[in-house]
């Protein structure tokens, strides 16, 4: 059975995640309010951020920066600024 959520990022009913992918309170909030589609969008942005800033996920400051960007993207409708990145034109 497909689990539906009202996605905070897409502002629509959409298929929810199968399980909590992120730890803690924020992870629960993502599980309850973010769709698979929006999570997929975030993962693409996250990869670009990690690569551009050469983030080390063992570094707590780097993880915090990524988490701040994740919350901004998923819950505040913000986009992630990637220097020099130009999205492909439709």
UniProtKB/TrEMBL annotation:
Any one GO biological process: cellular response to oxidative stress
GO terms for MF: iron ion binding
Similarity comment text for this entry: Belongs to the Fe(2+)-trafficking protein family.
InterPro entries (UniProt xref): Fe_traffick_prot_YggX (IPR007457), Fe_traffick_prot_YggX_sf (IPR036766)
Annotated source species: Paraferrimonas haliotis
Protein name: Probable Fe(2+)-trafficking protein
Domain of life (superkingdom): Bacteria
GO CC terms: cytosol
Pfam families tied to this protein: Iron_traffic
Free-text function comment from the UniProt entry: Could be a mediator in iron transactions between iron acquisition and iron-requiring processes, such as synthesis and/or repair of Fe-S clusters in biosynthetic enzymes. Necessary to maintain high levels of aconitase under oxidative stress.
Keywords: Iron
UniProt KW Transcription regulation keyword: no
């Amino acid at each position: 059975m497909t689990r539906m959520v009202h996605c905070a990022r897409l502002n629509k009913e959409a298929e929810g995640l199968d399980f909590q992918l992120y730890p803690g309170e924020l992870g629960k909030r993502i599980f309850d309010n973010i769709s698979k589609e929006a999570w997929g969008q975030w993962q693409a942005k996250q990869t670009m951020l990690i690569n551009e800033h050469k983030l080390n996920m063992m570094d707590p400051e780097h993880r915090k920066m990524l988490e701040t960007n994740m919350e901004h993207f998923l819950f505040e409708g913000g986009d992630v600024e990637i220097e020099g990145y130009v999205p492909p034109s439709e």
